[in-house]
Amino acid sequence: MNNRINKLFQEKKEGILSVYFTAGYPNLDDTIPMIQALQSNGVDLIEIGMPFSDPIADGPVIQHSSLIALQNGMSVSKLFDQLKNIRQSVEIPLILMGYINPVLQYGVDAFCQKCSEIGIDGLIIPDLPLTVYEEEFKTIFEAHNLHNIFLITPQTSEERIRTIDQASTGFIYMVSSNATTGAKATVSDFQKDYFERVNSLSLNNKRLIGFGISNAETFRNACQYASGAILGSAFVKALDGPGTLDLKVSGFINSIVIKS
Amino acid sequence: MNYQVNEKGYYGEFGGAYIPEMMVPNIEELSSRYLEIINSYDFRQEFVDLLKNYAGRPSPLYLAKRLSEKYQSNIYLKREDLNHTGSHKINNTIGQILVAKKLGKHRIIAETGAGQHGLATATVCALMGLKCIVYMGAVDVERQAPNVKKMRMLGAEVIPALSGNQTLKDATNEAMRDWINNPVDTHYIIGSVVGPHPYPDMVARFQSVISEEIRWQLDEQTGRENPTRVIACVGGGSNAAGAFYHFLDQEDVELIGVEAAGKGIETQETAATLTLGSPGVLHSSRSILMQTRDGQIAEPYSISAGLDYPGIGPMHAHLFKTKRARYIWATDDEVLDSALELTQLEGIIPALESAHALAALKKIHLKPGEVTVVNISGRGDKDMETYLKHFGY
Ligand SMILES: Cc1ncc(COP(=O)(O)O)c(C=O)c1O
Q1: pLDDT on residue B289
Q2: Do A75 and B19 touch (CB under 8 A)?
Q3: Interface touch B19/A127, C-beta < 8 Å
Q4: What whole-number distance in Å separates Cα of residue B235 and Cα of residue B308?
Q5: Cβ of B306 below 6 Å from ligand 1
Q6: Which ligand 1 atom is the nearest neighbour of the CA of B115?
Q7: Residue B21, CB half-sphere, CA atoms under 13 Å: how many?
Q8: Which of A127, A167, A236, B363 is 20 to 30 A from B24, alpha carbon to alpha carbon?
Q9: Is the pLDDT of residue B106 over 60?
Q10: C-alpha span between B310 and B288 (Å, rounded)
Q11: How far is the CA of A175 from the centre of ligand 1 (A)?
Q12: How confident is the model at residue A259 (pLDDT cuts 50, 70, 90)?
């Protein structure tokens, strides 16, 4: 089945810009204006973070935004309410990213049903392992045309990368270094080797590079080794301080994608 | 009924390894090797030798005469408080440090609540000459100050966890993040029967020495191996897992776990996980936990730092679900009473955690001919400040 993620990767071969934000941060009702601003500034793909109280794969910036978002009253059902009519104004692919426990409490069936009603294209659930996904979740995800996006890291063995490639349908999320989100990335020789090693495997799925991409330079470097890159902590950090949401979003995106 | 973990890492519906991809290489390495390592002849030799000659095992099984008189029954205390470093935690850290060495790791991380696990980890790291980093909630750094000083003296770095309620859950989050950031040279010594498979099973095996000893000690003293019941406190559940282990298939032995009710199960300030929780995933295993309807983890509370945790090991969730063990709770106030009672009747100052197990004596009806074993998981040195504040000595 084709969905917006596949369409994006068919149409755009390089420089895909994906942005993560935490729903409910800085303010509870920023979700819709945020998505609209990201789309109008040329972002290709959006990862909407569902805040969780104990995000073990995240560094301090996303931990903090999650805490504030929860204090603001964000929840899975609140987010679904906010997103109800999002497809009237937004065409780019939307991915929900979050931890497994809130999804389990909502009910996996009900959760996927809601996603498909809204027009969500994929999910990234870092603590949903491949084996559990295949045994318990896959049929439900597929029935709702939802791509499950898997991560690989510099430590992932070639054999496992191939297994993940077989199981993937949207794209593969290539974690740039052995780290929680927000770590500083420079494209080191070690990372170059890793990116080149993965590229030489001729995988079926395209890759986006994420974790530690924070400015025009790291974005440009990452784009040399994959179809594009994902900005998370750097964007969330840019939402701090005064100014309108629109200005912060456009200011940030313009600092990443230097117009030629 | 089977109470052991299955080959996929589950106890019934609970357990598993809900880990992010970044942790997969370490967990797979551990899962595929832990049984072979801990069943090897070399390992057994070294483990048994260290338990005996370094940690001071076997720990005594002591018939508490005045306590028995008071409750008109036979009460035996399993004295884990007499182990080196003052609690049962050393059984596990000795086992895991040997595993870490076999895996070729030279940097050790741990989380700690009461500081007993951190202390036991810092101790074995000093013993083996390995680098040690302990994450501890900032609130616990304050309330368990003596243990923090000991860990530092032993050469460990103690890093306060500043997120959440700044207690055990948050320290565990930080330790997991550390492991994600240091995937090659580091072994994470988890302090209880929690976390992803194979930790719950591995830690339970190391702690099972407690019930192994209870059986022969009881036989020696009474002519029978099985008591009427075994009582232990449960935070994550490691001392209880160890005290229950060799009785799991002895269905005539009643198993009772005691959770920390904090200020009461009707309040928000509690850590009575099985009493109040529901199924979910925390710290990479499916178990029972305290959470909101939206699946956010609740912030727990207990006077005892070691039990101040919103989850419980998957083995206990399974024992609870299958009703093989019974789980009750005790409030802060009940626990303080029981700690003072043991101190003044038997001359033993227990850890606040262990005093939860003692509080059960007032909640179940003990009969004259029965034999009850209470696991005294640790000693009260670390809790003196809390005791002095409450009792005013
Ligand atoms: C003395 C003592 N007992 C019990 C516990 C609780 O842990 P567990 O439930 O894993 O035995 C602790 C934890 O710090 C402890 O220090």
Answers
A1: 98
A2: no
A3: yes
A4: 7
A5: yes
A6: 14
A7: 25
A8: A236
A9: yes
A10: 9
A11: 36
A12: low
CATH class of A15-256: alpha beta
B180 CB-near residues (< 8 Å, 6+ apart): A56, A57, A178, A179, A180, B20, B22, B23
Beta partners for A21? A48
Q: Pick from A67, A77, A178: which is nearest to B22 by CB? A: A178
**Minimum-distance CB partner of A56 among B24, B177, B296:** B177
Q: Which residues of A touch B (CB under 8 A)?
A: 52-54, 56-59, 63, 67, 70, 75-77, 99-106, 126-129, 132, 150-153, 155-157, 160, 175, 178-180, 183
Q: Do A178 and B291 touch (CB under 8 A)?
A: no
CA of residue A114 relative to chain centroid, distance: 19
**Which of B21, B169, B173 lies at the smallest CB-CB distance from A150?**
B21
Per-residue pLDDT, averaged over B245-259, amounts to 98
Tokens of A156: 């992932």
B257 lines ligand 1 (CB under 6 A): no
User: What span, in angstroms and rounded, lies between the C-alpha atoms of A142 and B284?
Assistant: 25
| Residue in B180, B184, B190 to test binding to A, most A beta-carbons within 10 Å | B180
Contact residues of B toward A, CB < 8 A: 16-22, 24-25, 163-164, 169, 173, 176-177, 180-184, 279-284, 291, 293-297
pLDDT of residue B73: 98
| pLDDT bucket at B1, cuts 50 / 70 / 90 | confident
Query: pLDDT tier at B112 (50, 70, 90 boundaries)?
Result: very high
CB atoms within 10 A of CB B104: 9
For the segment B16-70, what is each residue's pLDDT rounded down to a tens digit? 999 999 999 999 999 999 999 999 999 999 999 999 999 999 999 999 999 999 9
User: Is the pLDDT score of A181 beyond 90?
Assistant: no
pLDDT band at B260 (very low <50, low <70, confident <90, very high): very high
Task: For chain A, give every domain's residue range.
Answer: 15-256
